[in-house]
Amino acid sequence: MLTRLRSRIGQVIFFSVILLPLLSGACRKVAIRPAIDENLELRNWPQFGLTPERTNFTATRVAPPLKNVWIYKTSSAVSPTMLAVNGALIFTTLDGRFEILDIATGERRGRGKCEGQYEAAAAYRRGFLFFASRYGQETLVKYDLLSGKPLWKIDAGDIASEPLIAGDAVYVAALYHRIEKYDFESGERIWSFKSEDQHRSSPALKDDVLVAGCDNGVIYALNAQTGKLTWKVETGASVVATPVISAGKVFVGSNDSTFYALQLADGAAAWTFLAQTPIFQSAASDGRNVLFGASDGQFYCLDAETGRERWRFRAGSAIGTAPLIADDLVYFGSLDRRYYCLDLESGALLWSFETRGRVRTAPIIWENYILGASEDRFVYAFAPADSLAGLAL
Amino acid sequence: MFKKCFLLLAVWIVLLAGNLYSQYYFGRNKIQYDHFDWKIMRTEHFDVYFYPEMQELAEIGAAFAEEGYRKFESKLNHNIPNRIPLIFYSNHAHFQQTNTIPSLIPEGVGGFFEFIKGRVVIPANGNIHQFKHVIQHELVHVFVRSKMNRVLKDHRKTSHAGLPLWFTEGIAEYWAEGWDSQAEMILRDAVLNDHLVPLARMDAIYGTFLMYKEGQAICKFIAENFGEEKLHLLIDNLWKVGEFSQVMKLTIGLNYEEFDQKWIYDLKKQYYPLMQESDLPKMVTRTITKEGINTKPACYSFAGEERVVFVSNRVGYSNIYMKPLAAEERDDEVLIKGERTSDFESFHLFNSKIDVNDRGELTFVTKSGGSDVIYVYDIAQKKIMKKFQFAGLVSLASPNWSPDGRRIVFSGISFAGLSDLYIVEVETGKLQRLTNDFYHDHDPAWSPDGKVIAFSSDRSYFGKDGFMNLFLYDLGQGAIQYITKGGHNDYAPAWAPDGQALAFASDRDGAFNIWVLKNVQAREPSRQLAQASADAHNSTNHNGVNGDAKNGDTEYPSALAREDEMKKLTSFTTGAFDPVWLNDDRIIFTAFENFSFQIRELSGVQEKFNSFVVAENDTLVTSSDLWAADKIAGEVESTTIKYKRKFSLDIAQSAISQDPVFGVSGGAQLAISDMLGNQQYYFLLYNNAQTRSDFLSSWNFAVTRVELSRRANYAIGAYRLSGRFYDLVDSFFEREQVGGFVAASYPLSVFNRIEGGINIRKEQREYDFRGQTVDGIVITNSISYVKDNSLWGYTGPVDGERFNVTLGHTIDVQNNDVNYFTLITDYRRYFRLSTSMTYAVRLMGRFNLGREGFRYFMGGSWDLRLYPRWRIWGQKLFLVNHEVRFPFIDRFLLGFPFGGLGLNAIRGAVFVDFGQAWDRDYQFNEVLGSVGFGLRLQIGGFLVLRYELGRRFQIRDLDNPHLHFEDGIKKAFWFGFDF
User: Fold this and answer.
1) pLDDT band at A19 (very low <50, low <70, confident <90, very high)
2) Which helix (H) or strand (E) covers residue B781, if one does?
3) In this model, does residue B117 exceed pLDDT 80?
4) Residue A108: phi, psi to the nearest 5?
């Protein structure tokens, strides 16, 4: 069993990824070689929500019961999102650092701290990381993993949301009332849309429609080519959750306690669902179901077409993360310190794991691993118990 | 320096045990009048501490707490990982006995969140909605503090100053209560009377009630104009910058100054139009009082002279005053002095009305010992005629005479926390209970015909949201009828002399004003409804719910008829309360204005009544009047277990120092206590070796156990203290003390106590200078009587008196080398010369009589001023201080680019001191003295800086005394509160 596991992991780790020894200190000293195998990149989790539509859905199935493979202690609480790139787990911390871990072993491959970077979220594409910073002078940075150097740094305003990479562009929704598109290569701003309030909701993209929520309760849909407003819909309170685009609809929860399903084409309401409390977290959808959690600890599965409630599950506290749909399973975390795995069809609890702190980091999947983090500086990797049999942990 | 600190700590711990509360030397007493059989109820998120008598109230409180937890968890998207200790008391008098904090709890404190153990400590006060409000207010503090700490920890901002007080209190009040008529009244007043303090200068009112309410208004403004989420974003963004003004800039785009522009402009737009149709009370009514806070008027006539009696705190203490209305030039007469003796500890300035009958007999409530009492006081004879204290009734309020003067109706809160109406027969003291349920019944007013009692209560359907409406209790039928009903507050009903009209205070149009309802009387209710109301008030199931109510079809019958007229009598911009009829055309009331409460007179009542249009009577239809508060048992499985003491840390700190001469020293101190603070342990351990060879012999430790759960407190402890000391007489010496002690303190009242202790120690001294070693087993016994009813200003006492007399005996039972008696007397008296000026005098003598009595030291700013510190010594000492304290600068505000610093008043003083110390070696041949002027500045509530200058003098040759002034002006700068 040990040999077989090593073989599977080894294929990924030892033949696809070459992680150069990374030096601590300034970010320019951190280097990681990107994957050469494009097929491997397809298995990556390169940005929040996995795809530009932010569906948080993958057909990869990691079935419980899961065992905790390793725990890694980092410098501070981990940001709400993490990336899995070619066998490496990349995450940022709220004290402005980023770290790269070997997913198989949990060993640190590198870490860095860029000047002025705080509470950065990141996205990955073709060997480059894009950091968005919540506060500072250079809030959007393109970072070359190979050289370990930033290629460009621009002042894109304070950014509290996740950058979106699609095509040759980077999209950001910023706190200074802007949704903007930047050139992937040069960092040149292509267009800027001025909204009416701060954005904490990250943009999602399908075809040429870019959708983002706003603190004034408005959901904006822009033409991704021109940055012109296509439609907008007002909700009753701030929209801080990131929209999910699936099955021709935009799914997003609002702090007015309502979950909205809007037609992607024109913003017309397909249906709404009233939760009892504000919805801070993003949803996930496999096209048939849409799932989200609310701040009262209720986790809902709705029919994506009709909005009919299929089932609900009550966690011990507010739902702290976006869900991850992994084939017929759904993973999410809660402020009750637990990661949960439910059966997508029935909502039955299949597995849960109590971490050492509140869970605010969305689970992601890479190969046979579920990866997550808790608020008290710990990063976790889980894998099916049967795949670990015989492996000394 | 380090060693000195530890030695001071060691001494402090020993003294703590020796004197318990008298570690403050003086000080009032927190008394455990009652023994509580504590239990813990575990709910989903809370450990609820309660005593069995209040179990139902605790279950209701637990439900409020869980409701609040869910609410704030959602609002802040945050949770509390640990169980929250929630300590309930059924009333304020019990709450004042809590040992969870060492300080005395003033009457105005409605609850608190204590940071060290994370305890939330809350009393009920009879009003369920208010109970909920306080629980949720404190819970906001718990969440906000937890969230703030999390944010700062995540971003590694450990040195951040945190959230400003105006914000933490403002958001707690706003999220717990939203906006209410009290907040509205205070903001209206601040804007219209031009004393609103901008956010940028909030330091000027730091910690005041006005700051709390402005904070609430600011949070409301942010929520309404920028979105509710911005309030918790202000916490989320705290880590980014140090100044909260900049956090606001980042969050809502406005810093303090920019915010002030918008906020104050908005307030003016909102409130200035009120002046069109409303009045400031001072402009349209007659002024009766001017200074301090004056409330709860009652009127009567004596020999044709109209008089008003009221409660006031104009001198700092609360007193009951009498003022003849016709003689404005006469000073108000003090009838009863309060807050100085255990007979009249507190008049409940804002909570309890007073009443005077036709015979000039005043009835009022005051706290006396562990519970309230009702007094009957003959104003003409200036004599207490009756005193009523009822077993099982802890808090009393608003006594009101029956028309024949033979009975008094009042509201009382039981040990279980129920607030109901009672009647006491004045002659016999026989008590009759009128209501018995969880509703809050208050402000009873007996009708002139003696048939009904009007009162304010939350027993209508709207009471669930905290609204108080008016009701009639029909004494003939034993039934309750409603007078008003609706989502507004109606307080303090008062019958007109002819019984045909009822005046009351109501906030039904947004601000509290005087309203009058004419022709009100008990109607003949239908049999079914009368029975329903009788069932309601006779209910013994303690939540006011009977079978009918559960079916949702029970209403109180109305006491109103179609012809009844309800009209608004005043239209004040701010507030009017507690109306009482002087005669059919004049009403005396309390007005809120300029952030103060004053007694005022409204005349021309009939004309005013006729000129106002009739308001619609309260005829709102509700499905049911009776309501019941949720209890936790229905929602969450609760487990009740008996309270067992479990200790946790209060203080833990260690220190280490290196000195080139004295080497390395290190040590630690620790304090632990149980959740209720009733049992406390103090530990001290340190080493003060100067050389390696001294290490083993230089360990110092002290351990003390203090037991505070009963009225008699005691402490036991043991210690070993060794070190090198310097004595002005004996030079350097090494001393080692190993001993133990027992001490006890018994408070006779809040103001005085007896305390004593025994200290046994083996002591050894090695004198460098003498080359001599002495040792022995020394026993010290002492007993003290301490009194303190002083009233404090910014820098020290301004009124009252303090007294300490101590007798002690110390003997060396091994060698009899030491054998002396100790007598200490210290009397301090403070005479008010005016509201802000005080003459203070201290007479102190300290005497050690016998062999080897230790020497007292004197000199410096704390005793004999302008003399070198502690340079006057002897086994006997006397000291006399005279001082006149007066205001020098009322307010001192410093502005810095990074923020303001508001300093409290700078006080001035002129003083004359006399004193001397003497013994066998130092003869008493002259009296030392000083005269001078001083300034005192209080900083942060705990530190007073003192500057003194003047001249020293001596009275020489006591057989033929003459005064000698030393040359030159002496100056001294030191710290410490006034004596």
Assistant:
1) very low
2) strand B772-788
3) yes
4) -75, 130
Inter-chain CB pairs, A–B, below 8 Å: 68
Going B265 to B269 to B272 to B278, the CA torsion angle's sign is: negative
From A53, A19, A391, select the one nearest A202 (Cα to Cα): A53
Q: What is the mean pLDDT of chain A?
A: 87
| B150 touches A: beta carbon within 8 Å | yes
Can you give the pTM of this predicted structure? 0.87
pLDDT tens per residue, range A341-378: 999 999 999 999 999 999 999 999 999 999 999 998 99
ipTM of the complex: 0.85
Chain centroid to Cα B624, Å, comes to: 39
Tokens read off for B821: 């008696």
> Could you say which of A158, A175, A215 has the minimum Cβ distance to residue B229?
A215
Distance from CA of B129 to the nearest CA of A (A): 23
Q: Is B760:B741 a contact under the CB 8 Å cutoff?
A: yes
> Is B81's Cβ below 8 Å from some Cβ in A?
yes
User: Do B363 and B386 touch, CB atoms closer than 8 A?
Assistant: no
Sign of the C-alpha dihedral, residues B70, B73, B77, B81?
A: negative
Closest CA to B597 of B288, B309, B211: B288
871-890 in chain B: CB under 8 A from chain A: none
Cβ(B139)–Cβ(B72) under 8 Å? yes
Residues above pLDDT 70, as percent of chain B:
88
Nearest to B79 among A135, A240, A318 (CB): A318
Render pLDDT for B894-908 as a digit per residue (tens, 0 to 9): 666 555 566 667 899
Question: Roughly what angle, to the nearest 10 degrees, separates helices B209-226 and B165-177?
Answer: 70
User: For residue B863, which amino acid is it?
Assistant: D
Kindly compute the dihedral angle of the four CA atoms of residues B119, B121, B127, B130, in this order, to the nearest 10 degrees: -50
From A54's Cα to the closest Cα of chain B, the distance in A is: 22
Closest Cβ–Cβ partner in A95, A237, A335 for B156: A95
β-strands B46-50, B84-89: how paired?
parallel
- What lies within 8 Å, CB to CB, of A236 at 6+ separation is A217, A254, A255, A256, A258
The pLDDT mean for chain B works out to 87
Strand order in the sheet with A121-125: A121-125, A128-132, A140-144, A149-154
